[in-house]
Amino acid sequence: MADKVKPDWTGNDLLSRFVNLMIQTKPIYRLMTHQARQVIINTAEKNGISWQGNCQTLEKSPAKSLLGQIMNPDIVYPDYYLVPFHAYDEGNLCWKAAFEAVPATQSLGLRVWKNEDLTWQEAQKRLRASFHQVLEPYSPPEVKDVLDIGCSVGVSTKALHRYYSQRQNNPINTIGLDLSPYMLAVAKVTDEQQEISQWVHGLAEKTDFADNSFDVITIQFVLHELPRHAATAIFKEALRLLRPGGVLGIVDNNPRSEVIQNLPPALFMLMKSTEPHSDDYYTFNVEEALTRLGFEYQTTVPSDHRHRTIVATKPV
Length: 316
Ligand SMILES: C[S@@+](CC[C@H](N)C(=O)[O-])C[C@H]1O[C@@H](n2cnc3c(N)ncnc32)[C@H](O)[C@@H]1O
What we know:
With 316 residues, the chain is of the alpha/beta class. The protein is built from 13 helices and seven strands.
């Protein structure tokens, strides 16, 4: 891990401000986001993930017909969410983003171990296992209720559910929560064995769950999509929802990762052009925020050479 706390291409550094200026230039932004998409699609296709095939299967699935049933009409989307993400003008609020999230999530592990000859399934398994392994020593011995915040199309949720289910005999009640009803519709149709109890359309900052209702809450690859005020509000809500002794696990890009700090300019330009809240994320002291809110901060572990896992518990 590097001594530097964050990459120079984030925050208020000169390089970061220069990159932001380039991104704010419309034709350059368009070019960047187009390129960023191509990098992700090429990684997937090169590793046997059919981008088009996945999207066509979902197009023919009942996903679209589930939207009305999943959508909570009382939701008011915050401004930070209503901006382009991942090269989609409508951010996470469209079918294209939701359908393409399946092959994009499948590829997630491939960029981590790109020098190893892993299948995407092996890389995905390793990515999730490296997170569960860090959570394990802080998890309550008996886990009944699990919440995955920002579950997207449900890949993190199913892996989490299976991890805690194989660890003990009693059944686990797992819920996936997301602000995009499109992502949730895809999560629901791809939950073929109906392992997950509920897919909930909700704002993580203000949920309808009762106090002290979960033993484990996770926030996986969500923080980098949030401004810090939203992340802080979500931590506060997680503290309310956890039972005393319950555990919060967060995994995301590691600002101290040498790989991330030394990304070639083309790649960090691409990354920043598709992730509008990057500067806020990379300069946010998550551990300090958790402690200030009343969590017992436990550990931060570089769970692989690009990501870090942060664990905090609710005081007993
Ligand atoms: C990159 S995806 C998460 C990926 C997923 N957890 C995984 O590991 O495969 C981020 C998700 O966070 C959701 N999200 C962002 N802000 C949110 C909020 N305030 N409340 C609930 N979900 C939110 C987005 O809709 C998106 O689906």
